[in-house]
Amino acid sequence: MTQTTEAAVDASRAGRKRSRIHRAWFVAAVTFVTIIGAAAFRSLPGLLIDPLHQEFGWSRGTIGAAVSLNLALYGLTAPFAAALMDRFGIRRVVAAALMMIAIGSGLTVWMTAAWQLLLCWGLLVGLGSGSMALAFAATVTNRWFTERRGLVTGILTAASASGQLIFLPVLSLMVEYHDWRPAVVTVALSALAVVPFVWLLLRDHPADVGLNPYGAQEFVPKPAPVPGAARRAVAVLFKAARTGPFWLLAGTFAICGASTNGLVQTHFVPAAHDHGMPAPAAASLLAVIGVFDVVGTIASGWFTDRFDPRRLLAVYYALRGISLLFLPMLLAPSIHPPMLFFIVFYGLDWVATVPPTVALCREHYGDDSAIVFGWVLAAHQVGAAIVAVLGGVARDVFGTYDTVWYASGALCAAAALMALVIRRQGAPVRVAA
User: Fold this and answer.
1) pLDDT per residue over 68-104, tens digit each?
2) Cα–Cα distance for residue pair 122/134, rounded to 1 Å
3) pTM of the model
């Protein structure tokens, strides 16, 4: 053992004696707050469509194109961001992403043309929010924790929903009683306010402060920076794509995105309105889904630490599919107890699939799991984008959303079967170039 390693181990032991709370939990707390700050902008798209349409006369298709670009980049940026974190460190990448969100959001105040909306809202904020996606949470969890990884993943995943719950009511009141510009400025300031916390409190690796990862019995040296971030992200994709578990994980997560962001988040309000329910009442139900989403995701992380993640995924997707099959019978002009039961049940299952999916990526791909999960997350966003479009087309063709709910229920049943056939992996396989 070298003198440097011995000193690091001694520092680690001294650090444990000085404090009962491991530094990893402070890093997780900073990550939680950071994701909440980045989630502010994800509360805005549904609030700004009508104000932008009324002020500038842009079609909803044009505004929707900016939203689609944002969603696509949110998913496709994640694997490259994970590779950049390996190259330049978590702190630098996250601080740059927050600055990009703040700039993109702030510049929309002065926009006068539709291409500026695509540039600011679609490109800049899409790239920034994509760098703050779930791959960020996976990277922090992998580096700082060897125990309680499922629980930490659940907590950090719930941060995005928590951010939307915090900002959505405030931003909606701003848009309704003032203008859309104060809401946009609020988002920019929220992103900027988190930057000092990231720069001062977030650390790239436990070795930076002479600590073991939480739960580790031995000191883990900080790995050397990995050059060629973009090349590595693509190389990981091609090599992971040669394995069956990758396609099963990507397929199940694409169905996850299709049945949540693409379907319920996009089409629940208009579907409820078709049955006579006022739009504000339907929107309030979505907010309730967000509340129980936090509870369900954290509980799922706790379960992931104790049970087979394959079986958890199968149960989650099966229950989600069953609930969607009953939804057409529950939609009514007013809110009633069976609908509330569906909202609570569905909310608990909203993103409960994330901790088991991250755990399976870690099991099969080891050190490259954050990048692999980034590509799996990209599949999630692609599934959401496809169903967001097809759901509207189906409504135009059939005059009702019933077919969409039934088809989504069948897809969730397929996802449950796919999760069960993912093979077990004894030792993680490194797929980096």
Assistant:
1) 777 778 777 877 777 778 778 888 888 888 888 888 8
2) 19
3) 0.70
